[in-house]
Structures are given as structure tokens and as C-alpha cells.
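Saturday, quiet lab. Running sequence design on the C-alpha cells for the scaffold JK sent over.
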């Protein structure tokens, strides 16, 4: 289809004859593109934001903790308090071979950390080095707890982001410096910048992580533990072995294996599956709403072009009388439709990109982008291709009607 400067000038002149009608017609396409591209970019950003809250958590992991029993068992009444211990780690490794990592944790709530004249409230967590296999830390400085810390009983700690910012307001690497927790000094060996909302026994941002053996001695916890965290071997679904895990722990503590509230098991696999299913539905809804709105705008363009053709009956008839071919009439009307659709659509893409950029900047902390709300390059290319196709389709019916206009129709209309 030939497209020269004269034709462009003629198309712009035609569209500018009725500016209000042209604007309102183009706004339908503008809004359709805005809805489609905006929902795609917003949906992707929202999914990334939710995944950030789950970031670092193994998808095939589970957490077990003890609560009051709800079923009488072995002569014990319901409502009995019980606690897990280190032997449960050995039991699970021996009786549930599908498990890859089984690691205990101990938590001390309401502690306070001090460095110089700075103070921060914190939660003390005692962990083993293999805790990294369950929830991966984001080490901003230094390292995590290792095996040498456990075996040598080192008084070392890894502090969370909020604790770091409260105690070391000047910034910089705090590794090698001492902080005091409950009258005992610990050497800082790392800063964990994990900031997800899904954490084990309290926020990682406000946590001070110590070797579990050290917490056991300092707080006189003996053989007892608070939580058991575990991951399955590759290919193992945690939901398939949850009942066996509960049974192994329950029988060792005279708790009914059917007491799913007495032996609580949080299976992250189910949660990740739920999030994936939810966003599959959201994506389908986004495409239905966006494409539906876009097609509604294209139909509006087609209807207005039909009205324009009816108003230009005399002009088109004169063109036919002086030798204009049906093909030139067809290309003229379709070109007008494509240009109107393209201008409105590209304006919609530009506007929604600015909105998404503002959302992305609003979700940036310490120079770290929490979620990317922008659309990809290929999404933009696909939107442009769809606009071109809609422009052709919107102008096709009016163009076919214009082709059927004869010089005698122009005389009759006059």
C-alpha cells in the first residue's frame, strides 16, 4: 500500500475536520490499550511483589511445630502441652528417607541489641548452617552461620536489615564489630537483607541469628527445640509425606497421629501452588478484560468511519468520476483507520508506561527494585502489531462501502 506525504496530509485534514469526534473515537482505542498493557504490566509486577515475599523459601519445604493436643491419646487428655527435641531430627531422617534437610531452630522473643549508644529490639534465632537450604539469606555483608561456629562455640551473629540500620546508622560493613544482647557480646559476621513477609518465627529484618548450640546454652533451653524445618529431595512432593512426618513425631511424644492441630505442619508447596493457580486465573482475566476493551474501541473506530464515509459520499463519487480506482479508495479509508488507531494506541502505550514506571519507583527501597511493573519489549511489539491489525479490520467495512459508491450516487446525494 503506497503511503506518501500528500496522502498523509489529506488523511490528517480529514481527521481534523471533526476534532471532537476524532478525539472521542481515538479515546476508545487509547483506553483499550491502556487497560490491556497496564493490566499485563501491573499483573506481572504484583506477581513479582508477592513472590518477593516468598523469596528464598524452598518450594518443597515444610515447618513443624508443637501445639496443645486436641485429641485424647494413650491416657492423656486433650489440651496437653508438649515440646519437640533434638531426637526428632534423627527420627525423621531415619523414618522418612524422602527428606533432604531436617534442621531445628530455637527462638528468643523480645530481646534487645546494643552497639555503643544505639539500641534495637530484635528476635534471637538459633539455627544450624543448613537452615540456608530452607530459607536462603540475602547476605549484604559477610557470611552466614557455618559449621565452625557450631563446633567451636563461637559467639558470632548475623543481623537483619532493620537491626543493622538501627545499630549502625552510619552504614558501612559492620563485620568484626561487637554488639551486646542480654549482657553477652557477639561478633557480627554478616548482614542478612532478606525482607520477605514469609519468615520462620519472626521477621528476618528484625532478627539476630546465632549458632543454635550457643542459644541452647545461653538461654538454658536444654534438649528442647521450637521448630523443625525441612526440605524434600528433588522430585518429592511434601504433601505426599506430610502424614508420615506427623506420625513419626506424634508417636514419639504420645500424641495422636491424627491430631493435625497438635502437630502443626506448614507445607510451603501448597502455598506456592495456590499462588501459581491464582495468577493463572488473573492472567486469563487480564487478557479477557484488556482485549475486550480494545475490541470495543476498534468497533467504535469502525462505526465512526462508516459515518465518515456516508458524509463523504459526494467527495468519493467525484473521485470515482475523475478516475480514482476502487483500490485507491480502499487504501485511503483503511489508511485513515490505521492512522487513527495507531496514534491513539501508541499514546495509550506511552501513558501506561509512565504510570508503570511511577509504580516501579514507588516500590524501590535503598536503590533495590522490589518489583518490576514495566512491560517487556516483545509485549510492546505485540501491542503495536495488534493495533495495526485492528486498524485494518476497523477500516475494512467502511472501505468496502466506499468502494461501492458510484458517481451517480454522488449526484443523487447532492
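Result came back. Writing it out in full:
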Amino acid at each position: 500500500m503506497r503511503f506518501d506525504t500528500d496522502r498523509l496530509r489529506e488523511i490528517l485534514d480529514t481527521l481534523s475536520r471533526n476534532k471532537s469526534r476524532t478525539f472521542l473515537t481515538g479515546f476508545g482505542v487509547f483506553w483499550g490499550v491502556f487497560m490491556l498493557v497496564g493490566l499485563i504490566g501491573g499483573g506481572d509486577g504484583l506477581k513479582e511483589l508477592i513472590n518477593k515475599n516468598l523469596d528464598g523459601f524452598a518450594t518443597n519445604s515444610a515447618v513443624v511445630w508443637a501445639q496443645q493436643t486436641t485429641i485424647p491419646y494413650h491416657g492423656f487428655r486433650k489440651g496437653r502441652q508438649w515440646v519437640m527435641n533434638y531426637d526428632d531430627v534423627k527420627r525423621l531422617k531415619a523414618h522418612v528417607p524422602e527428606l533432604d534437610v531436617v534442621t531445628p531452630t530455637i527462638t528468643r522473643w523480645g530481646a534487645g541489641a546494643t552497639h555503643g549508644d544505639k539500641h534495637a529490639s530484635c528476635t534471637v534465632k538459633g539455627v544450624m548452617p543448613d537452615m540456608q537450604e530452607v530459607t536462603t539469606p540475602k547476605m549484604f555483608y559477610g557470611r552466614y552461620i557455618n559449621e565452625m561456629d557450631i563446633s567451636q562455640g563461637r559467639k558470632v551473629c548475623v543481623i537483619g536489615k532493620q537491626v543493622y540500620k538501627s545499630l549502625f546508622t552510619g552504614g558501612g560493613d559492620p563485620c568484626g564489630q561487637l554488639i551486646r544482647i542480654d549482657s553477652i557480646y557477639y561478633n557480627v559476621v554478616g548482614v542478612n537483607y532478606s525482607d520477605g513477609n514469609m519468615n520462620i518465627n519472626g521477621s528476618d529484618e528484625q532478627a539476630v541469628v546465632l549458632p543454635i548450640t550457643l542459644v541452647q546454652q545461653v538461654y538454658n533451653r536444654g534438649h528442647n527445640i521450637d521448630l523443625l524445618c525441612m526440605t524434600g529431595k528433588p522430585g518429592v512432593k511434601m504433601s505426599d509425606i506430610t502424614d508420615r512426618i506427623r506420625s513419626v513425631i506424634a508417636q514419639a511424644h504420645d500424641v495422636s497421629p491424627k491430631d493435625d492441630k497438635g502437630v502443626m505442619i506448614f507445607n510451603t508447596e501448597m502455598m506456592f501452588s495456590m499462588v501459581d493457580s491464582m495468577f493463572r486465573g488473573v492472567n486469563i482475566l487480564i487478557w479477557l478484560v484488556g482485549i475486550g476493551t480494545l475490541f470495543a474501541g476498534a468497533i467504535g473506530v469502525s462505526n465512526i468511519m462508516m459515518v465518515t464515509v456516508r458524509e463523504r459520499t459526494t467527495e468519493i463519487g467525484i473521485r470515482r468520476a475523475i478516475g480514482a480506482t476502487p483500490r485507491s479508495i480502499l487504501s485511503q479509508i483503511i489508511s485513515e483507520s490505521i492512522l487513527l488507531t495507531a496514534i491513539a494506541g501508541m499514546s495509550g502505550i506511552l501513558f501506561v508506561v509512565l504510570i508503570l514506571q511511577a509504580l516501579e519507583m514507588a516500590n524501590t527501597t535503598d536503590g533495590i527494585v522490589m518489583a518490576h511493573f514495566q512491560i517487556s519489549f516483545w509485549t510492546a511489539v505485540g501491542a503495536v502489531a495488534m493495533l495495526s491489525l485492528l486498524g485494518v479490520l476497523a477500516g475494512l467495512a467502511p472501505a468496502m462501502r466506499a468502494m461501492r459508491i458510484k458517481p451517480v450516487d454522488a449526484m443523487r446525494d447532492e
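Notes for JK: The chain has a mean pLDDT of 80. The chain has twelve helices and 14 strands. Ask whether to fix the surface positions before the next round.
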